[in-house]
Amino acid sequence: MAGLLKSLLAASEKAASIAQLCRQEEALFSLLIEEKRGLDKNKKFLQDFKTLADVLIQEVIKHDVGKKFPELQDHIRGEESNKFENGLGETVVVQVCPTQEETAALLQKVLDRNQKAASLLAAAIHQEMVLLDPAVDEVDVVIPTESMAVWIDPIDSTNQYIRGKGNVMPVDGIYPSGLHSALVLIGVYNRHSGEPVLGIINEPFFQEELPGPRWRSKFHWGICYEGTKLSSLRRPRLRASPQVVLSSNEKAELQKALVPLYGEHLCFASGAGYKMLCVALGLADAYVLSEGSTFKWDSCGPHAILRALGGGIADLSEALRAFRAGRRKGLPELTYNKPVEGAVGAERWANPGGLVAYIYQEHLEAVMATLAATTDIF
């Protein structure tokens, strides 16, 4: 298991370096944006962008992890299509080639024949990542990779990534340093049960009071498999004043319903993965979302980390149904192996019933009790 975890962490670090490179090189970054259209467009945004950085990161993770674990090769999926249209109207299938020179030649087609940009990216793609982490080396959990699959969100909160905004959540009126809402998310799940078992969240733009656009990456991981729970994070303490984080465009009815529970401690932030990270770090006690605007690639990795810390991510609509029927424990959680029946395009892999991310069971039950008594929302 340490081998798979190390491979995924190394892939996430390479992903972070690609994201940083694309954001730092302004001339390069201006070439990397293509508007999504049709069924690939997220219904939540008027303009939803796919960046070449997204596609490259996804394909790099597929390539690097699939090379070391061939049994996973056909079971690594992500948010993005690996087809990219350049400024000349050519459609190019982006992939990692056997050599750096071949990858650079392929990328030149995407980058309107920009040799310098292609060479920079190819070098980042083919760099050898060495992960030195004694805690990871000590992981001794046997997970049968032949029954696993992987979800990738190459850059969660792409709109903030494009605009260079962190939009972090204040905690008790203070904005914590080092947090940025654009994240790399990787989740491993059981193909049969749909349960998340391993998760990685990588912060490509982690800062510690550094001036200017100088970043380093920071990763977090968690494993929850057959009773074993391990994580790079410690379980956060219970907060004296409960706090919830919501999407910036969460419906007013839900906000009003949560006021009796959280009072003035309603906070808002961008990025589903970021809000889940806030819960894992103890910056919020819960993340509540009433709409089906998140997807399996958004939640799988963070879900595994939250499970490793003793929490989880409940399927809001299913959990409410069970709660109203008298069930208090073992409320339905999100699963990752089955598409939404009757849906098409990206919506096949949505979390249509909304969600509640939490660490402590009492916070989940408090949210359920509050919303179960509100009949005009669900």
TrEMBL record:
Origin superkingdom: Eukaryota
SUPFAM superfamilies in UniProt: Carbohydrate phosphatase
Which of this chain's residues are annotated to bind Mg(2+)?
79, 153, 155-156, 298
Pathway linked to the protein: Signal transduction; phosphatidylinositol signaling pathway
Keyword ATP-binding among UniProt keywords: no
List keywords of the entry alphabetically. Answer: Hydrolase, Lithium, Magnesium, Metal-binding, Phosphoprotein
E.C. number, please?
3.1.3.57
Q: What are the names of the required cofactors?
A: Mg(2+)
GO molecular function terms attached to this record: inositol-1,4-bisphosphate 1-phosphatase activity; metal ion binding
Output the GO biological process annotations, alphabetical, semicolon-separated: phosphatidylinositol phosphate biosynthetic process
Q: Name one Pfam family in it.
A: Inositol_P
Q: Which reaction does it catalyse?
A: 1D-myo-inositol 1,4-bisphosphate + H2O = 1D-myo-inositol 4-phosphate + phosphate; 1D-myo-inositol 1,3,4-trisphosphate + H2O = 1D-myo-inositol 3,4-bisphosphate + phosphate
PANTHER family with a match to the protein in the record: 3'(2'),5'-BISPHOSPHATE NUCLEOTIDASE 1, INOSITOL POLYPHOSPHATE 1-PHOSPHATASE
**Family, similarity comment:** Belongs to the inositol monophosphatase superfamily.
Tell me, what does this protein do in biology? Mg(2+)-dependent phosphatase that catalyzes the hydrolysis of the 1-position phosphate from inositol 1,4-bisphosphate and inositol 1,3,4-trisphosphate and participates in inositol phosphate metabolism.
Task: Give the quaternary structure.
Answer: Monomer.
Q: What is this protein called?
A: Inositol polyphosphate 1-phosphatase
Species for this entry: Salvator merianae
